[in-house]
Amino acid sequence: MSSSAIALIILAITIVLFATGKVPLSVTAVAAALAMGIFGIIPFSTVFAGFSNDVTMMVIGSMVLGEALFETGVAQKIGSTIIKMVGTREKIFIITVVVVTAVLSAFLSNTAVVAIMMPMIAATAASSRGAITKKNTFMAVGFAANVGGGMTLVGSTPNVVGQGLLNDAGLASMGFFDLTLGSIPRLLFMILFYATVGCALQNKVFDFEETFDEKLVEGNGKEEHYDKKKMILASVILVLTVAGFITGIWTVGAVAMIAALACVLTGCISIRQVFARLDWTTVWVLAGSLGFAAGISQSGAGQLIAEKVIGLMGNDISMMKIMLVFTILSVVLGNLMSSTATMALLGPIVISMCASLGFEAKPVFMAIIWSLNLAFLNPAATPPVTMTLQGGYRFLDYTKIGSILMIGCLVLTVVMYPILFHF
After folding, report:
1. What's the mean pLDDT in 95-121?
2. CA 130 centroid distance within chain
3. Rounded to whole angstroms, what are the CA distances from 354 to 2, 84, 162, 350, 416?
């Protein structure tokens, strides 16, 4: 049996396990990655590479920073300030958070934005004493980060990879804001969803208990009990971390880990608290999924899926037809494997096809990027959504809520093609 066939079998089993929830997500993700190594699809060095991946390091470092903001009282202060500004009406709060997250994700790493937003939301939820909940907000933040990441060239990694492929091929490349106009309707749809049926639907789907940090609840309104010096130190570290993300002085993983070390060395949080409070489920799901995605890509399974879909295009090929096919293909693969790997897989295929047919590749690349940033159905598919597992969600919770948002955004994306590209 070929390696691609084996990889597809592992993929199918993994999807079933993810969907049923019979096995913890973290165990499934790591087991899927290990299976890729055991069956010789990828070397074990690649299987475990996700545990040292820059994105994984960024997630861990940002979690430590978030916990330090909790420990010093900075997150609580920000949370109470947010409540004073927007009140405790959860619907308004969610819409505000969605807009802020999407806008920030257009200019920062969308994964970094989620890492920064989540501790603020948790503190706000604690300050509201149940009026605002993490379970109704965390997932919305992950989805908004994905949509925001598709707004500019720097919002998410596939955007940068796609631009690099176009440049290497000597083709017309994307401008910084070329992706923005096609993303605005998606953000507006997301706002409309949460302003109307979204919150009521989430209340039905998320039927599990909300968890609160009792320390945060008890400490609500009592910021004077926190060490002012540590509050200032944690705030400075947060500002410098954001600055590091923006300037790109180092990789996002390096910036986040330096921030985490600074939090420990300055006493903002102890190393014992770090190991006790980190959400290890998120870390294991992310690291395991990266190894699993590498197996899908390197085995040729992703290429096989792509070729089958492209083969269905027939002989009557138009620019709109190419964009529709790669849109659907990107959405499917983007919810199964790494969006970065999908971009690297599909990009060369697009360049070759467009060159032989006499079409411009840039619009197709933009369609792929928009589509890859709609990975809402599988929490293991993209880091911004993986991080929201801290809200206590089950796999199918993402599918039930994400499918509505994904379909709505996808329709709007396709509708915009003739308007944006004049065909």
Report:
1. 85
2. 26
3. 30, 54, 15, 6, 20
Average pLDDT over every residue of 214-224: 49
Is 394 in a helix, a strand, or coil? coil
Closest CA to 381 of 32, 40, 125: 32
What Rg do the C-alpha atoms of the chain give, in angstroms? Answer: 21
Q: From CA 215, how far away is CA 264, in angstroms rounded?
A: 20
How far, in Å, CA of 59 to CA of 257, rounded?
9
Return the structure tokens found at 303.
Answer: 């290429």
DSSP notation for 216-242 = HHHTTT-GGGS-HHHHHHHHHHHHHHH
Most distant pair of Cα atoms in the chain: their distance: 72
Residue found by looking up tokens 């720097």 in the block: 154
For residue range 156-181, what is the model confidence (pLDDT) as tens digits?
A: 878 877 888 888 788 888 888 899 99
Return the closest-CA partner of residue 194 out of 92, 43, 123, 104: 92
Q: Quick one: average pLDDT of 264-288? A: 87
Sign of the C-alpha dihedral computed for residues 77, 79, 85 and 88 taken in this order: negative
Length of the chain: 423
Beta strands in 171-271 (DSSP E): none
Two tokens, residue 159: 């955007």
pTM: 0.73
The two three-digit tokens of residue 14, written as one number: 């993994």
**What's at 273, amino acid-wise?**
Q
